[in-house]
Amino acid sequence: MAIQPRTKDQREPLSRERVLRAAIDLADAGGIESLSMRRLAQELGVEAMSLYHHVSNKSDILSGIADMVVEEYELPEPSPDWKASIRRTAISAYRVLLRHPWAASLLLAGTTPSTARLRYMDALLGTLRAAGFSADMTDHAYHALDSHIMGFTLWVTGMNLPSDEEFDALATGFLAQLPADEMPHLVEHVHQHLKPRDPDDKPEFEFGLDLLLDGLERLR
Amino acid sequence: MAIQPRTKDQREPLSRERVLRAAIDLADAGGIESLSMRRLAQELGVEAMSLYHHVSNKSDILSGIADMVVEEYELPEPSPDWKASIRRTAISAYRVLLRHPWAASLLLAGTTPSTARLRYMDALLGTLRAAGFSADMTDHAYHALDSHIMGFTLWVTGMNLPSDEEFDALATGFLAQLPADEMPHLVEHVHQHLKPRDPDDKPEFEFGLDLLLDGLERLR
DNA sequence: ACTGTAGGCTTACGGTGTAAGATTGTCAAC
DNA sequence: GTTGACAATCTTACACCGTAAGCCTACAGT
């Protein structure tokens, strides 16, 4: 197969960095299930087994790309306004996870958390502590916030929403075959989502987020 | 292989019901990744391809067992106390999902929701509407609550917690290799989780849940 | 110039989901 | 009682997966 002897400068050498980057591109483009060692290698113009010189196995790749995603989070900065600070971080994390719809489930897949993730956790916990929450309270607040971020993200990415028009078509189709008399509230709910959103409205994600933040403020 | 000719009464005939039941048992016992067509067939004393006469393919099995899990949820009953009613349902769903740790990620995997799931959604939405929430508000409340249930469940099942002792060992090991000076709050957080829990304390799940419910009540 | 090694490649193994078709067991109609 | 139909089961096969083991070759250090 290797017709011409390739010399080093004829193609960019592989590297862990390059492998992970290509893996992210592949997952972004075709979903996490399209990320196989063989396809990834192909994308890099290389054979599958060559990847193993830069990455110890597939799960190493998965935690590697999950790590890179977390690095995109905007961490909270020291600020007197803890709510605004945490709010910004939560929204940033949410946005990042939407950009890489495969990432959230990877992060919850139960591998030992990466350094980037630990830094994120520590920063969030630190902000809460600095805001005056007790250790107990900080613990609870952290879990409530992270649950919301992850749960909401997974909810949104779960029904892999295509474009808006496609969503409308899909939703109306769904509506049509729904036993309207049996589940009237569900029908109303779908209509709710079909309604054009007022751009001044708070995004759905922030509704739950603020519910939590306001509740926490009262408990502080 | 089939040394003796089997007659109908020598073994229970297959059925969708029996296949799904066995699939749940297998997933409960060995995790969702141990559920393969061949292993499932083996468990039922049958060849893999025989399953396809009762189930259209593997993803049919997956949505089938996810469905059966949702059927275990305790639905809210009509009640003047909407908070208590929803609270009970949320906690019930959480408990059910913990019993089948593979279920939550399956439910968020983006298949068209099952009838059981739709009924659950409709019941929750109906309870909120009956409590006096506007259509908009009901929509937001629903998503916030479901995000919490799913997110928290996935958080807990994600770090597939073994027994309590194993957890302690794991956590202390984790602590040991944590750069304590770099992430002091994370260290505190882990200690928090190592502390024996006061049985009178509200479970962690309910903390976030009540934060949301109380916040909703104020917005009603 | 010699040699060790790093980074690529080949082959192979046991696993996966499932399409296609052969085989069997059961029962209704004649 | 025989036949035919049909449904359930099994067999075989294919294309994919992750990865272990080993080969080959070009460069780096001495």
Question: What do you see in this structure?
Answer:
The structure is a homodimer of 220-residue chains. Chain A is mainly alpha-helical. Chain A contains ten helices and no strands. The first copy, chain A, has helices spanning 16-30, 37-43, 58-70, 82-99, 103-107, 115-130, 135-158, 164-176, 184-194, 204-219. Chains A and B meet through helix 6, helix 7, helix 9 and helix 10 of A and helix 6, helix 7, helix 9 and helix 10 of B. Chain A binds a DNA duplex (30 and 30 nucleotides) through residues 1-2, 5-8, 13-14, 36-38, 46-50, 52-54, 57-58.
Please give the structural blueprint.
2 copies of one chain form a homodimer.
Chain A: H1 16-30, H2 37-43, H3 58-70, H4 82-99, H5 103-107, H6 115-130, H7 135-158, H8 164-176, H9 184-194, H10 204-219
The structure holds a DNA duplex (30 and 30 nucleotides).
DSSP strand content of chain A: under 5%
Ends apart, CA distance between termini of chain A: 67 Å
**Largest sheet of chain A at a glance?**
none
Rg of chain A = 22 Å
- Specify the helix fraction band of chain A: 55-70%
The oligomeric status of these chains comes to: homodimer
Number of strands of chain A: 0
- What string gives the helices and strands of chain A in order? HHHHHHHHHH
- Basic shape of chain A: flat
The low-pLDDT segments of chain A are 1-9
| Average of per-residue pLDDT values of chain A | 90
Number of helices of chain A: 10
SSE class of chain A: mainly alpha
Q: If interface size is counted as residues with C-beta under 8 Å from the partner's C-beta, which chains form the largest one?
A: A-B, 53 and 53 residues
